[in-house]
Amino acid sequence: MKKLFISLALLIAGMGSAAAQQMGGPKPGSWKASEKINKADALMYQHTPESMAEALNVYTEAEGILKADMDKAKEGQKNDKLALLYYQNAQLQYKMLSPELEKAQQNVPFDTLNFCKRVEGTLASYAAAQEYNVKPNAKGKVKIDKTLQSAIKMGAMALTDFYYYCGAFMDAVGNKQESVNYFQKFVDFPQTKIFEAADRDSIYARAGKTYSQARVNLALQNFHLKNWDQAIACCDEALKDTIGVHDLYIIKINALGEKKDSVAWQNTLVEAAKRTGETTFIQNLLYSYMQNKKVDDALAFGTKLVTEDPNNKINWYVKGALELNIAGNYEEARKSLEKALAIDPNYEDALFNMGTAYINDIYEQRLEGKFKFIGMDQVVQGNGKAVSAKDKALCQEQIATVKSYYEKAKPYLEKLRQLTPNDARRWASPLQIVYSSLNEMDKAQEMDALLDAANKSAL
Protein backbone atom coordinates (compact mmCIF):
# COMPACT_ATOMS: atom_id res chain seq x y z
CA MET A 1 0.00 0.00 0.00
CA LYS A 2 1.38 3.35 -1.01
CA LYS A 3 1.79 6.27 1.34
CA LEU A 4 -1.25 8.48 1.16
CA PHE A 5 -0.30 11.65 2.99
CA ILE A 6 0.00 14.99 1.29
CA SER A 7 3.72 15.90 1.23
CA LEU A 8 5.06 18.02 4.03
CA ALA A 9 6.24 20.60 1.50
CA LEU A 10 2.68 21.06 0.28
CA LEU A 11 1.38 21.19 3.83
CA ILE A 12 3.84 23.86 4.87
CA ALA A 13 3.17 25.85 1.72
CA GLY A 14 -0.52 25.73 2.53
CA MET A 15 -0.21 26.99 6.07
CA GLY A 16 -1.88 30.32 6.51
CA SER A 17 -0.74 32.96 8.92
CA ALA A 18 -3.95 32.49 10.91
CA ALA A 19 -4.31 36.26 10.99
CA ALA A 20 -7.67 35.87 12.65
CA GLN A 21 -5.92 35.46 16.00
CA GLN A 22 -7.29 38.56 17.63
CA MET A 23 -5.20 41.23 19.23
CA GLY A 24 -8.26 42.80 20.93
CA GLY A 25 -11.46 41.03 21.79
CA PRO A 26 -12.60 39.87 25.22
CA LYS A 27 -11.02 41.23 28.39
CA PRO A 28 -8.15 39.19 29.84
CA GLY A 29 -9.00 36.46 32.30
CA SER A 30 -5.80 37.33 34.17
CA TRP A 31 -4.39 40.87 34.14
CA LYS A 32 -1.16 39.64 35.70
CA ALA A 33 -0.65 37.17 32.85
CA SER A 34 -1.67 39.87 30.39
CA GLU A 35 1.15 42.13 31.59
CA LYS A 36 3.66 39.33 31.01
CA ILE A 37 2.23 38.64 27.56
CA ASN A 38 2.43 42.32 26.57
CA LYS A 39 6.05 42.45 27.71
CA ALA A 40 6.86 39.32 25.68
CA ASP A 41 5.05 40.73 22.65
CA ALA A 42 7.30 43.81 22.76
CA LEU A 43 10.39 41.61 22.93
CA MET A 44 9.14 39.45 20.09
CA TYR A 45 8.56 42.54 17.98
CA GLN A 46 12.31 43.36 18.17
CA HIS A 47 12.85 40.14 16.21
CA THR A 48 16.40 39.43 17.31
CA PRO A 49 17.47 35.94 18.41
CA GLU A 50 18.13 37.23 21.94
CA SER A 51 14.86 39.13 22.29
CA MET A 52 12.81 36.25 20.87
CA ALA A 53 14.42 33.78 23.28
CA GLU A 54 13.68 36.11 26.19
CA ALA A 55 10.12 36.59 24.92
CA LEU A 56 9.51 32.85 25.01
CA ASN A 57 10.72 32.73 28.61
CA VAL A 58 8.28 35.50 29.55
CA TYR A 59 5.47 33.74 27.68
CA THR A 60 6.26 30.65 29.74
CA GLU A 61 5.93 32.70 32.93
CA ALA A 62 2.52 33.90 31.74
CA GLU A 63 1.56 30.31 31.00
CA GLY A 64 2.32 29.37 34.60
CA ILE A 65 0.24 32.26 35.92
CA LEU A 66 -2.72 31.25 33.78
CA LYS A 67 -2.49 27.64 34.94
CA ALA A 68 -2.53 28.69 38.60
CA ASP A 69 -5.50 31.00 37.97
CA MET A 70 -7.36 28.21 36.16
CA ASP A 71 -6.86 25.82 39.07
CA LYS A 72 -8.17 28.45 41.49
CA ALA A 73 -11.20 29.23 39.29
CA LYS A 74 -12.04 25.53 39.02
CA GLU A 75 -12.10 25.25 42.79
CA GLY A 76 -14.61 28.09 42.94
CA GLN A 77 -16.59 26.78 39.93
CA LYS A 78 -16.24 30.18 38.27
CA ASN A 79 -17.14 29.12 34.75
CA ASP A 80 -17.25 32.64 33.29
CA LYS A 81 -13.76 33.25 34.65
CA LEU A 82 -12.53 29.91 33.32
CA ALA A 83 -13.91 30.70 29.87
CA LEU A 84 -11.89 33.92 29.76
CA LEU A 85 -8.76 32.26 31.12
CA TYR A 86 -8.87 29.46 28.56
CA TYR A 87 -9.45 31.94 25.76
CA GLN A 88 -6.47 33.95 26.97
CA ASN A 89 -4.42 30.77 27.12
CA ALA A 90 -5.43 29.90 23.55
CA GLN A 91 -4.13 33.29 22.43
CA LEU A 92 -0.92 32.73 24.40
CA GLN A 93 -0.37 29.26 22.99
CA TYR A 94 -0.71 30.62 19.49
CA LYS A 95 1.89 33.29 20.24
CA MET A 96 4.24 30.51 21.40
CA LEU A 97 3.43 28.57 18.23
CA SER A 98 4.19 31.50 15.93
CA PRO A 99 8.02 31.19 15.88
CA GLU A 100 7.81 27.56 14.78
CA LEU A 101 5.10 28.38 12.26
CA GLU A 102 7.23 31.14 10.80
CA LYS A 103 10.17 28.76 10.42
CA ALA A 104 7.94 26.19 8.71
CA GLN A 105 6.65 28.81 6.28
CA GLN A 106 10.23 29.83 5.49
CA ASN A 107 11.11 26.18 4.84
CA VAL A 108 13.82 26.10 7.51
CA PRO A 109 14.14 23.43 10.23
CA PHE A 110 11.69 23.78 13.07
CA ASP A 111 10.72 21.90 16.20
CA THR A 112 7.81 19.71 15.09
CA LEU A 113 7.14 18.42 18.60
CA ASN A 114 6.86 21.95 19.97
CA PHE A 115 4.77 22.94 16.95
CA CYS A 116 2.29 20.16 17.68
CA LYS A 117 2.31 20.88 21.41
CA ARG A 118 1.35 24.51 20.79
CA VAL A 119 -1.30 23.61 18.22
CA GLU A 120 -2.81 21.24 20.76
CA GLY A 121 -2.60 23.91 23.46
CA THR A 122 -4.27 26.50 21.25
CA LEU A 123 -7.16 24.42 19.93
CA ALA A 124 -7.79 22.54 23.18
CA SER A 125 -7.94 25.87 25.01
CA TYR A 126 -10.43 27.28 22.52
CA ALA A 127 -12.59 24.19 22.98
CA ALA A 128 -12.35 24.46 26.78
CA ALA A 129 -13.16 28.18 26.66
CA GLN A 130 -16.39 27.47 24.82
CA GLU A 131 -17.22 24.54 27.11
CA TYR A 132 -17.06 26.85 30.14
CA ASN A 133 -18.77 29.67 28.26
CA VAL A 134 -21.93 27.58 27.87
CA LYS A 135 -21.64 25.60 31.11
CA PRO A 136 -24.14 26.31 33.92
CA ASN A 137 -22.63 28.02 36.95
CA ALA A 138 -22.92 26.86 40.56
CA LYS A 139 -26.50 28.17 40.64
CA GLY A 140 -27.44 26.25 37.51
CA LYS A 141 -27.61 29.33 35.31
CA VAL A 142 -25.95 29.77 31.92
CA LYS A 143 -24.47 33.15 31.09
CA ILE A 144 -23.11 32.97 27.58
CA ASP A 145 -20.66 35.72 26.71
CA LYS A 146 -21.55 36.39 23.05
CA THR A 147 -18.47 38.50 22.43
CA LEU A 148 -16.26 35.73 23.79
CA GLN A 149 -18.17 33.10 21.81
CA SER A 150 -17.59 35.01 18.58
CA ALA A 151 -13.90 35.48 19.36
CA ILE A 152 -13.43 31.78 20.16
CA LYS A 153 -15.09 30.76 16.91
CA MET A 154 -13.01 33.19 14.86
CA GLY A 155 -9.75 32.05 16.41
CA ALA A 156 -10.53 28.35 16.12
CA MET A 157 -11.83 28.64 12.56
CA ALA A 158 -8.47 30.00 11.43
CA LEU A 159 -6.67 26.91 12.76
CA THR A 160 -8.97 24.02 11.82
CA ASP A 161 -6.36 22.52 9.46
CA PHE A 162 -3.54 22.54 11.99
CA TYR A 163 -4.36 19.19 13.58
CA TYR A 164 -3.94 17.70 10.10
CA TYR A 165 -0.47 19.23 9.85
CA CYS A 166 0.41 17.70 13.19
CA GLY A 167 -0.76 14.27 12.03
CA ALA A 168 1.50 14.50 9.00
CA PHE A 169 4.45 15.76 11.04
CA MET A 170 4.11 12.92 13.55
CA ASP A 171 4.06 10.40 10.74
CA ALA A 172 7.19 11.98 9.28
CA VAL A 173 9.07 11.39 12.54
CA GLY A 174 7.74 7.81 12.77
CA ASN A 175 5.27 8.30 15.60
CA LYS A 176 2.26 6.59 14.08
CA GLN A 177 0.13 6.52 17.22
CA GLU A 178 0.45 10.26 17.69
CA SER A 179 -0.23 10.65 13.98
CA VAL A 180 -3.48 8.74 14.46
CA ASN A 181 -4.37 10.87 17.49
CA TYR A 182 -3.91 14.12 15.59
CA PHE A 183 -5.73 13.00 12.45
CA GLN A 184 -8.64 11.90 14.65
CA LYS A 185 -8.64 15.27 16.41
CA PHE A 186 -8.67 16.97 13.02
CA VAL A 187 -11.72 14.96 11.95
CA ASP A 188 -13.51 15.49 15.28
CA PHE A 189 -12.70 19.15 15.94
CA PRO A 190 -15.57 20.68 13.90
CA GLN A 191 -17.96 18.70 16.12
CA THR A 192 -16.93 20.65 19.25
CA LYS A 193 -19.33 23.13 20.86
CA ILE A 194 -17.38 25.96 19.27
CA PHE A 195 -19.21 25.48 15.99
CA GLU A 196 -22.87 25.39 15.07
CA ALA A 197 -24.34 23.23 12.30
CA ALA A 198 -23.92 25.95 9.67
CA ASP A 199 -20.26 26.41 10.70
CA ARG A 200 -19.61 22.69 10.36
CA ASP A 201 -21.18 22.62 6.92
CA SER A 202 -18.97 25.52 5.90
CA ILE A 203 -15.82 23.86 7.23
CA TYR A 204 -16.52 20.54 5.51
CA ALA A 205 -17.46 22.29 2.27
CA ARG A 206 -14.24 24.30 2.31
CA ALA A 207 -11.93 21.42 3.11
CA GLY A 208 -13.97 18.33 2.28
CA LYS A 209 -11.15 16.64 0.38
CA THR A 210 -8.74 17.17 3.26
CA TYR A 211 -11.18 15.61 5.73
CA SER A 212 -11.63 12.66 3.38
CA GLN A 213 -7.86 12.32 3.07
CA ALA A 214 -7.54 12.38 6.86
CA ARG A 215 -9.94 9.44 7.12
CA VAL A 216 -7.86 7.57 4.55
CA ASN A 217 -4.75 8.35 6.60
CA LEU A 218 -6.46 7.08 9.75
CA ALA A 219 -7.29 3.81 8.04
CA LEU A 220 -3.71 3.33 6.84
CA GLN A 221 -2.10 4.30 10.14
CA ASN A 222 -4.38 2.03 12.16
CA PHE A 223 -3.53 -0.79 9.78
CA HIS A 224 0.20 -0.22 10.31
CA LEU A 225 -0.45 -0.24 14.06
CA LYS A 226 -2.34 -3.55 13.66
CA ASN A 227 -5.50 -1.98 15.00
CA TRP A 228 -7.58 -4.12 12.65
CA ASP A 229 -11.04 -3.14 13.90
CA GLN A 230 -10.20 0.57 13.88
CA ALA A 231 -8.68 0.28 10.41
CA ILE A 232 -11.85 -1.39 9.10
CA ALA A 233 -14.09 1.20 10.77
CA CYS A 234 -12.00 4.03 9.31
CA CYS A 235 -12.18 2.45 5.87
CA ASP A 236 -15.96 2.21 6.09
CA GLU A 237 -16.19 5.87 7.03
CA ALA A 238 -13.73 7.00 4.36
CA LEU A 239 -15.42 4.89 1.67
CA LYS A 240 -18.47 7.14 1.93
CA ASP A 241 -16.41 9.50 -0.22
CA THR A 242 -14.51 8.93 -3.47
CA ILE A 243 -10.91 9.65 -2.39
CA GLY A 244 -8.48 6.73 -2.18
CA VAL A 245 -11.17 4.11 -2.85
CA HIS A 246 -8.80 1.48 -4.26
CA ASP A 247 -6.31 1.85 -1.42
CA LEU A 248 -9.07 1.80 1.19
CA TYR A 249 -10.36 -1.51 -0.12
CA ILE A 250 -6.83 -2.92 -0.07
CA ILE A 251 -6.49 -1.84 3.57
CA LYS A 252 -9.88 -3.23 4.54
CA ILE A 253 -9.36 -6.54 2.73
CA ASN A 254 -5.98 -7.06 4.37
CA ALA A 255 -7.34 -6.13 7.81
CA LEU A 256 -10.20 -8.61 7.38
CA GLY A 257 -7.64 -11.20 6.34
CA GLU A 258 -5.67 -10.57 9.52
CA LYS A 259 -8.89 -11.03 11.51
CA LYS A 260 -9.59 -14.24 9.52
CA ASP A 261 -13.11 -13.01 8.81
CA SER A 262 -13.54 -14.97 5.57
CA VAL A 263 -17.17 -14.04 4.96
CA ALA A 264 -16.57 -10.29 5.25
CA TRP A 265 -13.33 -10.71 3.27
CA GLN A 266 -15.17 -12.33 0.36
CA ASN A 267 -17.98 -9.81 0.39
CA THR A 268 -15.53 -6.91 0.46
CA LEU A 269 -13.62 -8.27 -2.55
CA VAL A 270 -16.84 -8.37 -4.55
CA GLU A 271 -17.89 -4.93 -3.30
CA ALA A 272 -14.48 -3.55 -4.28
CA ALA A 273 -14.75 -5.06 -7.76
CA LYS A 274 -18.21 -3.57 -8.22
CA ARG A 275 -17.21 -0.11 -7.08
CA THR A 276 -13.82 0.16 -8.77
CA GLY A 277 -14.41 -2.03 -11.81
CA GLU A 278 -11.03 -3.68 -11.15
CA THR A 279 -10.87 -7.43 -11.72
CA THR A 280 -7.81 -7.87 -9.52
CA PHE A 281 -10.17 -8.13 -6.56
CA ILE A 282 -12.06 -10.99 -8.22
CA GLN A 283 -8.77 -12.67 -9.10
CA ASN A 284 -7.83 -12.64 -5.42
CA LEU A 285 -11.13 -14.31 -4.61
CA LEU A 286 -10.57 -16.97 -7.28
CA TYR A 287 -7.03 -17.58 -6.09
CA SER A 288 -8.24 -18.10 -2.54
CA TYR A 289 -10.78 -20.71 -3.59
CA MET A 290 -8.27 -22.44 -5.86
CA GLN A 291 -5.62 -22.50 -3.16
CA ASN A 292 -7.99 -23.95 -0.59
CA LYS A 293 -9.78 -26.23 -3.08
CA LYS A 294 -13.18 -25.23 -1.73
CA VAL A 295 -15.22 -25.95 -4.84
CA ASP A 296 -18.59 -26.31 -3.11
CA ASP A 297 -18.06 -23.13 -1.10
CA ALA A 298 -17.08 -21.26 -4.25
CA LEU A 299 -20.16 -22.36 -6.16
CA ALA A 300 -22.42 -21.60 -3.21
CA PHE A 301 -20.94 -18.12 -2.95
CA GLY A 302 -21.53 -17.44 -6.65
CA THR A 303 -25.13 -18.63 -6.39
CA LYS A 304 -25.66 -16.45 -3.32
CA LEU A 305 -24.49 -13.36 -5.21
CA VAL A 306 -26.85 -13.76 -8.16
CA THR A 307 -29.73 -14.73 -5.89
CA GLU A 308 -29.32 -11.55 -3.85
CA ASP A 309 -28.89 -9.29 -6.87
CA PRO A 310 -29.58 -10.91 -10.25
CA ASN A 311 -29.35 -7.61 -12.12
CA ASN A 312 -25.70 -6.97 -11.36
CA LYS A 313 -23.20 -7.93 -14.05
CA ILE A 314 -20.36 -8.38 -11.57
CA ASN A 315 -22.35 -10.99 -9.66
CA TRP A 316 -22.92 -13.05 -12.81
CA TYR A 317 -19.31 -12.58 -13.82
CA VAL A 318 -18.08 -13.81 -10.44
CA LYS A 319 -20.38 -16.84 -10.62
CA GLY A 320 -19.15 -17.63 -14.13
CA ALA A 321 -15.51 -17.13 -13.17
CA LEU A 322 -15.90 -19.50 -10.22
CA GLU A 323 -17.59 -22.12 -12.40
CA LEU A 324 -14.90 -21.72 -15.05
CA ASN A 325 -11.78 -21.62 -12.93
CA ILE A 326 -12.71 -23.49 -9.76
CA ALA A 327 -15.22 -26.12 -10.86
CA GLY A 328 -14.21 -26.46 -14.51
CA ASN A 329 -17.90 -26.50 -15.46
CA TYR A 330 -17.63 -24.78 -18.81
CA GLU A 331 -21.25 -25.03 -19.81
CA GLU A 332 -22.54 -23.47 -16.60
CA ALA A 333 -19.79 -20.86 -16.75
CA ARG A 334 -20.91 -19.80 -20.22
CA LYS A 335 -24.51 -19.51 -19.05
CA SER A 336 -23.50 -17.21 -16.22
CA LEU A 337 -21.20 -15.15 -18.41
CA GLU A 338 -23.96 -14.75 -20.98
CA LYS A 339 -26.13 -13.28 -18.23
CA ALA A 340 -23.38 -10.77 -17.46
CA LEU A 341 -23.08 -9.87 -21.16
CA ALA A 342 -26.84 -9.49 -21.45
CA ILE A 343 -26.55 -6.71 -18.87
CA ASP A 344 -23.42 -5.20 -20.45
CA PRO A 345 -22.53 -6.45 -23.97
CA ASN A 346 -19.18 -4.65 -23.77
CA TYR A 347 -18.11 -6.23 -20.47
CA GLU A 348 -14.48 -6.91 -21.36
CA ASP A 349 -13.69 -9.49 -18.68
CA ALA A 350 -16.82 -11.48 -19.48
CA LEU A 351 -15.94 -11.43 -23.19
CA PHE A 352 -12.48 -12.79 -22.42
CA ASN A 353 -13.81 -15.52 -20.16
CA MET A 354 -16.46 -16.56 -22.70
CA GLY A 355 -13.74 -17.08 -25.29
CA THR A 356 -11.60 -18.88 -22.72
CA ALA A 357 -14.50 -21.13 -21.68
CA TYR A 358 -14.93 -22.42 -25.25
CA ILE A 359 -11.18 -22.84 -25.86
CA ASN A 360 -10.49 -24.65 -22.57
CA ASP A 361 -13.58 -26.82 -22.90
CA ILE A 362 -12.66 -28.27 -26.28
CA TYR A 363 -8.99 -28.51 -25.33
CA GLU A 364 -9.86 -30.74 -22.37
CA GLN A 365 -12.19 -32.85 -24.48
CA ARG A 366 -9.43 -33.38 -27.02
CA LEU A 367 -6.94 -34.12 -24.25
CA GLU A 368 -9.29 -36.77 -22.87
CA GLY A 369 -9.34 -38.53 -26.28
CA LYS A 370 -12.98 -37.90 -27.13
CA PHE A 371 -12.06 -37.29 -30.79
CA LYS A 372 -10.08 -40.31 -31.92
CA PHE A 373 -9.53 -39.03 -35.45
CA ILE A 374 -8.16 -35.67 -34.33
CA GLY A 375 -4.75 -35.22 -32.74
CA MET A 376 -3.49 -32.39 -30.57
CA ASP A 377 -1.95 -30.43 -33.44
CA GLN A 378 -2.94 -26.78 -33.35
CA VAL A 379 -4.63 -26.92 -36.77
CA VAL A 380 -7.83 -28.95 -36.46
CA GLN A 381 -7.69 -31.72 -39.09
CA GLY A 382 -7.86 -35.51 -39.38
CA ASN A 383 -4.84 -37.55 -38.28
CA GLY A 384 -4.89 -40.15 -41.04
CA LYS A 385 -6.56 -42.91 -39.03
CA ALA A 386 -9.83 -42.66 -40.96
CA VAL A 387 -9.75 -45.30 -43.68
CA SER A 388 -13.27 -46.48 -44.32
CA ALA A 389 -16.01 -44.27 -45.62
CA LYS A 390 -17.74 -44.56 -42.25
CA ASP A 391 -14.61 -43.45 -40.42
CA LYS A 392 -14.06 -40.59 -42.84
CA ALA A 393 -17.62 -39.38 -42.24
CA LEU A 394 -17.08 -39.59 -38.48
CA CYS A 395 -13.75 -37.80 -38.84
CA GLN A 396 -15.40 -34.89 -40.67
CA GLU A 397 -18.10 -34.79 -38.03
CA GLN A 398 -15.50 -34.58 -35.26
CA ILE A 399 -13.57 -31.87 -37.10
CA ALA A 400 -16.76 -29.86 -37.44
CA THR A 401 -17.56 -30.33 -33.75
CA VAL A 402 -14.13 -29.22 -32.60
CA LYS A 403 -14.07 -26.25 -34.95
CA SER A 404 -17.49 -25.16 -33.72
CA TYR A 405 -16.02 -24.41 -30.30
CA TYR A 406 -13.37 -22.15 -31.81
CA GLU A 407 -15.97 -20.52 -34.06
CA LYS A 408 -18.05 -19.74 -30.99
CA ALA A 409 -15.05 -18.35 -29.10
CA LYS A 410 -14.02 -16.17 -32.03
CA PRO A 411 -16.64 -13.35 -31.92
CA TYR A 412 -16.16 -12.78 -28.18
CA LEU A 413 -12.42 -12.42 -28.51
CA GLU A 414 -12.63 -10.31 -31.65
CA LYS A 415 -15.03 -7.95 -29.89
CA LEU A 416 -12.60 -7.76 -26.98
CA ARG A 417 -9.89 -6.79 -29.47
CA GLN A 418 -12.17 -4.14 -30.94
CA LEU A 419 -12.86 -2.68 -27.50
CA THR A 420 -9.21 -2.79 -26.36
CA PRO A 421 -7.09 -2.41 -29.52
CA ASN A 422 -3.99 -1.40 -27.59
CA ASP A 423 -4.04 -4.37 -25.21
CA ALA A 424 -2.69 -7.14 -27.45
CA ARG A 425 -1.29 -9.05 -24.49
CA ARG A 426 -4.86 -9.62 -23.39
CA TRP A 427 -6.40 -11.03 -26.56
CA ALA A 428 -3.64 -11.90 -29.06
CA SER A 429 -2.73 -15.27 -27.52
CA PRO A 430 -6.28 -16.75 -27.37
CA LEU A 431 -7.07 -15.34 -30.80
CA GLN A 432 -3.91 -16.96 -32.16
CA ILE A 433 -5.18 -20.31 -30.88
CA VAL A 434 -8.59 -19.72 -32.46
CA TYR A 435 -7.24 -18.66 -35.86
CA SER A 436 -4.71 -21.50 -35.97
CA SER A 437 -7.37 -24.05 -35.09
CA LEU A 438 -9.60 -22.72 -37.86
CA ASN A 439 -6.70 -22.79 -40.34
CA GLU A 440 -6.75 -19.00 -40.72
CA MET A 441 -3.01 -18.87 -40.74
CA ASP A 442 -2.54 -15.28 -41.93
CA LYS A 443 -4.54 -14.02 -38.96
CA ALA A 444 -2.72 -16.40 -36.62
CA GLN A 445 0.63 -15.02 -37.78
CA GLU A 446 -0.67 -11.49 -37.27
CA MET A 447 -1.50 -12.38 -33.67
CA ASP A 448 2.00 -13.81 -33.18
CA ALA A 449 3.53 -10.56 -34.43
CA LEU A 450 1.25 -8.36 -32.32
CA LEU A 451 1.93 -10.40 -29.20
CA ASP A 452 5.69 -10.34 -29.80
CA ALA A 453 5.63 -6.54 -30.25
CA ALA A 454 3.50 -6.06 -27.13
CA ASN A 455 5.81 -8.21 -25.03
CA LYS A 456 8.88 -6.30 -26.24
CA SER A 457 7.29 -2.92 -25.50
CA ALA A 458 6.47 -4.10 -21.99
CA LEU A 459 10.13 -4.78 -21.17
Strand count: 0
The topology string of helices and strands comes to HHHHHHHHHHHHHHHHHHHHH
Distance between the termini: 24 Å
Q: If you compute it from the alpha carbons, what radius of gyration comes out, rounded to the nearest whole angstrom?
A: 34 Å
Strand composition percent: under 5%
Give a quick account of the main beta sheet: strands, pairing sense, barrel closure: none
Average predicted local confidence, pLDDT: 90
Short key terms for the protein model shown above:
459 residues, mainly alpha, Serine Threonine Protein Phosphatase 5, Tetratricopeptide repeat, 21 helices, 74% helix, disordered N terminus
Secondary-structure map with pairings?
Elements: H1 8-14, H2 31-46, H3 49-75, H4 79-105, H5 112-133, H6 146-157, H7 162-172, H8 176-188, H9 197-206, H10 208-224, H11 228-238, H12 245-259, H13 262-276, H14 280-292, H15 295-308, H16 313-327, H17 330-343, H18 348-367, H19 389-419, H20 424-437, H21 441-457
